[in-house]
Write a structure and sequence with these properties.
There is one protein chain. The protein is mostly helical. It has one domain (about 15-130): Hemerythrin-like (Four Helix Bundle (Hemerythrin (Met), subunit A), Up-down Bundle), CATH 1.20.120. About 70% of the residues lie in helices and about 0% in strands. The protein has 5 helices and no strands. The longest helix is centred in the middle third of the chain and has 28 residues, at about 40-70. It is elongated.
Length: about 140
Amino acid sequence: MQNLGWIEEYDVGVQKFNEQHMQLLTALKDIYKAMEDKQDKKALQNVLNNLLKYCREHLAEEEACLLENGYPDFLEHKKQHNFFINKMLQFCEDFKDEKFTLHFDIAMFLKNWIIQHIMVVDKKYTSFLNSKGIH
């Protein structure tokens, strides 16, 4: 899948989070590759679980930083994270229970949500965290 590489517009001004966002994009590429290669269900489940695990770790670290620094839009930011994690959990559960196969509609949702979240929601904290000396 193209258009999943890092571009400068994704820069949120905090190196640690930029690096984590790069890892999220790599995990997302792995999902597309697994689907394109028609990997078996177990392999797809592992890739999806890895993305969920990494998302949880990244979002928790981002939330801790925002909370610790008194980010004024923290609750809304966390609400967005909760929505995404719940959606991911549902995808994983449905896939495991064979309610559907992992297909490009789900992968497109993941791609669009991650990129939209970085470009819109995460960009909102850039100047705030930078003003606290966090780069």
